[in-house]
């Protein structure tokens, strides 16, 4: 993602949208407890991507490219993480 757009810096309290930053631009929260769509199923792995166009550094094109980079990177990670049986 960083190759196509900037990563949002944390707020002064080291959070992004009120959630603790666990890695550069990365937060984790319980989808189910918050009633978000990622918690509707019992899927073992879920994710969401957010590329915010409200930054003066962002354009519509950069936001689209950031979303694509996020999804394809996640798929590359999952493919690389498969064991000899092909399972995650």
Describe the protein's architecture and organization:
The model has no long low-confidence stretch (mean pLDDT 83). The protein starts with 14 loop residues before the first strand and ends in a 7-residue tail after the last helix. A hairpin with a 2-residue loop joins β2 and β3. The protein has helices at residues 31-34, 60-81, and strands spanning 15-16, 19-23, 26-27. It is α+β, with helices and mostly antiparallel strands and 88 residues long.
Secondary structure blueprint with pairings:
Elements: E1 15-16, E2 19-23, E3 26-27, H1 31-34, H2 60-81
Antiparallel strand pairs: 1-2, 2-3
Question: What are the defining features of this structure?
Answer:
single chain, about 90 residues, alpha+beta, 3-stranded antiparallel β-sheet
Brief rundown of the structure:
The protein is α+β, with helices and mostly antiparallel strands. It is 30% helix and 10% strand.
Compute the average pLDDT: 83
What fraction strand? 5-15%
**Biggest pleated-sheet summary:** 3 strands, antiparallel
Shape: globular
Order of helices and strands: EEEHH
